[in-house]
Amino acid sequence: MNLLKHIPADSVGLVQPQKLHFDEPLELRSGRVIDRYDLMVETYGRLNSKASNAILICHALSGDHHAAGYYDPDNAKEKPGWWDCCIGPGKPFDTNHFFVVSLNNLGGCAGSTGPSSINPDTGKPFGPDFPIVTVRDWVKSQARLADRLGIRQWAAVIGGSLGGMQVMRWAISYPERLRHALIIAAAPKLSAQNIAFNEVARQSIMSDPDFHAGRYYDYNTYPQKGVMLARMVGHITYLSDTLMRDKFGKEARANFGRDLRGGKLSFGFDVDFQVQSYLQYKGESFSKNFDANTYLLVTKTLDYFDPSVDYDGDLSRAFAASACKYLVVSFSSDWRFAPERSREIVDALLKAQKDVSYLEIAADEGHDAFLLPIPRYMGALHAYMKRVADECASAGAA
Amino acid sequence: MRADLLLIQDWIAPGARVLDLGCGDGAFLAHLKHTKGIRDCGLEIDTDKIQKCLEAGVNVIEQNMEQGLGNFQSHSFDTVVLAQTLQALQRPDMIVEEMLRVGKNCILTFPNFAYWRHRAYLAGRGRMPKSEQLPYEWYDTPNVHLCTIRDFDALCRAKHIRVLNRTVVDAKQRSSALMRLLPNLFGINAIYHISR
Fold first, then answer.
1. Which CATH number does A206-287 carry?
2. Are A231 and A283 a contacting pair, CB within 8 Å?
3. Rg for chain A, CA atoms, rounded
């Protein structure tokens, strides 16, 4: 299939996003309304005649619609989409069997309508006027996307971290519209510690002198330092202590990851240790490509997520009407959304007498493990999705 | 699938909710799903076996039952199964209590340590019995709490547990008149169906 040497055989290959326009006003949980909006979407594989083989991929905080494949036929250094290890022919989300849909959520900054989009009423970017959207609002917009694509029921809705929260919302709000829910490295709601980290991120952005109360577009500037700081803090929470010791302790495992960058101490406030330059590099490269207002918005989306809120805090009652089967996966070294948080989801599902499988994958990679091709994790997704694929032949059109 | 599991399937009602503690590769639950339309849930800690469960389409929770079943609601299952595992637990009595809380009825199978060959082995050689059922040395055995049929009956009496059914079988899961007459002497495996 792939004529280009640098694109692996098990890749979905060259892909093209498409922008879909929606004119029906979207009422938000906040009470505000988005009158019209665009969603950036990528699809991989083919929808079968019964439209029974579609799976939806929900992205996390900084993700977007580009989940797999490549854009540029001439760039051998191009990195594929963010979940390329899972999506493709022969991979867990096998494009030989599934029609995979991935979108950039509302409020994003990768082409879907968000704070950096032009407000048609003013001719200027929305900036801080863009409403706070919640996971519930996202899923509502995703349901409209499903309608547009002719998908009555997803074979599976899948997501990690904040993506897993969207999966839970799907199961609760649209029980008849999905057969399987894969909730990976997620939590039923944020803890005070999670919210605290998000608050540091927001304060970093909002205290940047270039933020201009969110109207930095009008000043032809951008709070890059603020976004960089926010990402640096966030990035620490995605890694584990063990991983950092290994990553920055190549000289000797026993030195706690304290490898020096220049070989000796500077006795100044510049970079001394490898971990410092790594974090700065990660923060800086992220800050060049991500809108500050979107970052603020999505941290709020995370903070507000709590599907038990309509059920007196009882998550199992939230799941009571859901009709899908569940796979819940956590990672041992994840301390952002630790295994205990996934077990809260599992316990609520057990209490609601739902079909659920739960795996705690041993991994040193922390929260980011859900993005990585860890053998046991891939094997489990593969086995689970093979059953889903087998069902697709008989399910659907009914 | 193990023959002792085939013996106990008659005690499981069609459409029942079944919790299998230490469900292994999920073959038993998959079989019950196919033949009786049960709602399945298995607990397992072995990662390879968990993978097999996923392949078999069986619901499996990665959880160590020795750390309790506190996350399972009381009477949330019709039948809770514990096959050939009781003797390997740190506190078998507490697991039995938990099984009876979570399930309306429970099925347990375990090797009978009072089987006459074990008695003869100990009496004759003065060493811990080894057999086809108990192949381990005393120092590396997972079976830290072996018991006899009489021991288990005593536990049931002490805890006011009702024995709904009891079957005693040989290594090939067959019963005989001798085993029915003197189960604690001639039975190799004990199979109990209990409730509160």
1. 1.10.1740.110
2. yes
3. 21
A167-202 pLDDT tens trace: 999 999 999 999 999 999 999 999 999 999 999 999
We find that the CATH architecture of domain A18-189+305-394 is 3-Layer(aba) Sandwich (3.40)
Q: Which of A159, A233, A225 is nearest to A193 (CA)?
A: A233
What is the three-class DSSP state of A38?
strand
Candidates B50, B53, B75, B80: best to mutate against A (most CBs of A within 10 A) is B50
- In chain A, domain spans: 18-189+305-394, 206-287
Task: Of A67, A58, A60, give the one whose Cα is nearest residue A17.
Answer: A67
3-class SS at A93?
A: strand
pTM of the model: 0.95
Q: Answer whether B73 sits within 8 Å of A350, measured CB to CB.
A: yes
Terminal Cα distance for chain B, rounded: 29
**What residue type is B176 in one-letter code?**
S
Residue pLDDT, tens place only, A117-164: 999 989 999 999 999 999 999 999 999 999 999 999 999 999 999 999
Beta carbons within 10 angstroms of residue B143's beta carbon: 19
For residue B76, pLDDT over 50 is answered with yes
Q: What is the DSSP letter of B160?
A: T
Q: How many CA atoms lie within 13 A of B48 on its CB side?
A: 0
* Residue contact A383–B54, C-beta within 8 A: yes
Cβ atoms of A367 and A335 closer than 8 Å: yes
